[in-house]
Amino acid sequence: MKQEIRIGLAVSLAWLCACAGTYPPASQCPQPRFTGKAPDAIYALSNPLVHSPENIAAGRRLYEKDAKPACQMCHGIRGDGRGPLAAQFDPPPRNFACARTVNGIPDGQLFWIVQSGSPGTSMPSFQVLREDQIWQVVLYLRELAR
To answer: What is the dihedral of CA 136, 127, 68, 78, to 10 degrees?
Structure first.
């Protein structure tokens, strides 16, 4: 009887490990969507802000609650594209937890998408944010991809 329980537990554990896999799922990383290229002058920009705990924290606050709407409502608190509103969008929100997606996007392109939105998706523009705030969000998006 004890042997059967141990075998059952081992099989259950193996099944859980196999189903859990890696997160985010490989099918969502990288995402195949493409937003038009930012104007050359913006595309070539590098984030001018220092990669500091203060700037990362400010970007996180904007992402989680201060931007209206808060980024996490669609992209998820972990940046995985699974926020409370995500299921209603097609295409789904960008998965920022996927390093292969985020690291393949230049700073200027991320800045432009946050500022201008993404036509053909549900990504709104955040023109109400100051430039330094958008750069803080870009820093935080890079943190989510680590």
So the answer is: -40
Residue 4 corresponds to which tokens in the numbers above? 């059967």
Please give the DSSP secondary-structure letter assigned to residue 146.
-
Query: What is the rounded distance in angstroms from the CA atom of residue 139 to the CA atom of residue 20?
Result: 29
Q: How many CB atoms lie within 10 A of CB 138?
A: 23
DSSP three-state, residue 16: helix
Structure tokens at 84: 């409370």
Give the integer Cα–Cα distance in Å for 140 and 72: 12
> Whole-prediction pTM value?
0.81
Three-state secondary structure call for residue 1: coil
What does R_g of the chain's alpha carbons equal in angstroms? Answer: 19
* Measured distance CA(108)–CA(88) in Å, rounded: 28
CB 47: neighbour CB atoms within 10 A?
A: 18
Cβ–Cβ contacts within 10 Å for residue 120, how many? Answer: 11
pLDDT tens digits for range 107-121: 999 999 999 999 989
pLDDT digits (tens, 9 = 90+) for 6-61: 434 333 333 333 334 444 455 578 887 778 999 999 999 999 999 999 999 999 99
